[in-house]
Amino acid sequence: MGWLAIGLLAWLGGWAINIRLAALPKSRLTGLAIPVIFGLSLVVIWESMVRGFDVSPILLPAPSAISVKFVGSLGILWQDFVQTVVKGALSGYAIGCGSAFALAIVIDRFPFLQRGLLPIGNFVAALPIIGMAPILVMWFGFDWQSKSAVVVVMVFFPMLVNTVEGLRATNMMQRDLMRTYAAGYWQTLLKLRLPAAMPFVFNGLKVTTTLALIGAIVAEFFGSPIKGMGFRISTEVGRLALDMVWAEITVAALAGSAFYGSVAMIEKKVTFWHPSQRG
Fold this sequence. Notes:
Layout: H1 2-23, H2 28-52, H3 63-72, H4 74-109, H5 112-126, H6 129-140, H7 144-167, H8 172-180, H9 185-219, H10 229-238, H11 242-270
Helix pairs in contact: 1-2, 3-11, 4-7, 4-9, 5-7, 6-7, 7-9, 9-11, 10-11
């Protein structure tokens, strides 16, 4: 009962502190403290529930056991991180988002392409990743190149749609003003339409950060060298080593949060003028 009491106290204490912090004037400190306290409360409740109810580590290991495994496996976790995130996810993200952005410019320049290419892109986006991943692994091999190809397929269409919509964000009056200044297509694109499209572009970039990581991990379930986060998760599940599985999940969560946060920080610098970034 002692562990259950600790869990209850952690829940009540975290709730009370966050209520007080939420009532304070909004600041960077309170914005950071509230989620940190909430997360720590969840970890303490998780630990106390597992120990209080004597849950088997095969079903759900305690956070303390996961932490011990995490610290003791830093070499393996780093190797898996480089293979999955750096080589697979980031390369596919850059290729997929970059090519989608370029194609959106081409579609904007030649509108008839929109009727032909967007329906095809919509069809490709609807294909299940579970079905596409093994095919791409057979095409591109078992190393990171096939995982990068899966990521390209996953991120391409969301980025394309957001960029195309962003290029339409300017209104007729703004475009007419550019024409009165004798601005051509490319001058209007660079000085008016692309800056106006940046909130849409960054929305696509942020959405695809999580898709890239998920695609790279799932693709490794269908064949990879003896390293990678997806490979490690599938292997350790078969060995019932759930502490290692949760350690890999922790790395994936940290990597995904850092990836998303980095894009969001760049967005703040680029779109400082947009109402969503003020105050």
